[in-house]
Amino acid sequence: MAAENIEQFRGQLQSIFSEIRRDVIGQKEVVEGTVVAMIAGGNVLLEGVPGVGKTRLVRSLGRVFDLPFSRIQFTPDLMPADVTGTNIIVTDEKGTSSFRFQEGPIFSNIILADEINRATPKTQSALLEAMQEHKVTVMGVSRKLCEPFFVLATQNPIEQDGTYPLPEAQLDRFMFKLLVPSPEPAELKEIITMTQKTMEEVAEKVCTGESLLAMRRTAGEILVPEGVLDYTAALCAATHPESRNASAAAKKYIRFGASPRAGQALISAGKVLALMDGRYNVSYGDIDKLAYPVLRHRIKLNFEALSERVAPDGVISMILEEAKGNGKAEQIGAPHVRDEGAKKRGLFGRGR
């Protein structure tokens, strides 16, 4: 890959971040994580209490990338046809009736699934095919969705009344689960000041859908060393308590481990991180940084973890510590030459 391609990629990325910061105060890691997932072609689940800017971030992304945007407010009475669309009866001027497909809001580029866990499992399942295969099937007819296509979903972690937990099959289709923290006092002051002037987003278009797809192709050319690939596969295997390569933390706290999609997400997003840092290959540090957003929603904790109030991020930290050499390095990967620069950046740190 030519050096100018990397510089062009990084320049485009900085323009994207600069425009988003005009609308979103703080939330640096959440913004970076969302953009990385979009470039890598993945969906994102944003979890945070109300009012921390989840919806505003998604709207701003639609403006920055100049892509059609649909917001679907998930409620218990929302039906699958309200998401995918349905066949309706139309009558022409001759009085002849026929069926015509009426597209639903899913036929857009960026889908905001607001409070996704408030819809019933039947309606949630309407997104499964769209999130994985980028198409929907209605009345036996499959229809392709627009490209690029992303589902950015939000959910509230503290209010559980009237909600339906997302099934594992759907959680697995999110590349990242990002935890959106409450703003710091200085950020909160800036938010208050900004919103007193206007509540409208002011970010402008700096990237088209075609440019985003080109950035994805550029990231796809990044090399993955064999050792990093071995480490990624072994790290995912270490989350399975029944595996012979399971970590001690997995055996103690995990009921079910991560699926193969976790490994795919780590490598795809790792290539984007490498380009962000001006490197030509994925590093072990990239994989470590991505472990939290990629794995936290893909591991199912057991009763012991719940009783001891051990969070998924805590278990992931334990697994990574074992990987770093506490007598287990040979068991779950190649020698660990770390990317200290990525560690200092704190791109995807532990959630609160």
Keywords:
globular, alpha/beta, single chain, two-stranded antiparallel sheet, Rossmann fold, 352 residues, 2 domains
Notes on the protein architecture:
With 352 residues, the chain is α/β, with parallel strands linked by helices. Helices cover 45% and strands 15% of the residues. Residues 326-346 have low confidence and may be disordered. It has 2 domains: 3-213, Rossmann fold; 222-345, Orthogonal Bundle (Helicase, Ruva Protein, domain 3), CATH 1.10.8. The two termini are 38 Å apart.
Secondary-structure class: alpha/beta
In percent terms, what proportion of residues is strand?
15-25%
* Amino-to-carboxy terminus distance: 38 Å
CATH topology of the largest domain: Rossmann fold
Instruction: Give the overall average pLDDT.
Output: 85
Give the low-pLDDT segments: 326-346
Strand order, biggest sheet?
2-5-8-1-9
Question: TL;DR of this structure?
Answer:
With 352 residues, the protein is of the alpha/beta class. The chain has helices at residues 3-20, 28-40, 54-64, 80-84, 121-124, 128-133, 168-171, 185-197, 209-220, 226-237, 248-253, 260-276, 284-295, 303-307, 312-323, 329-332, 340-345; strands at residues 43-47, 69-73, 85-91, 97-103, 110-114, 135-138, 141-144, 150-155, 174-179, 254-256, 300-301.
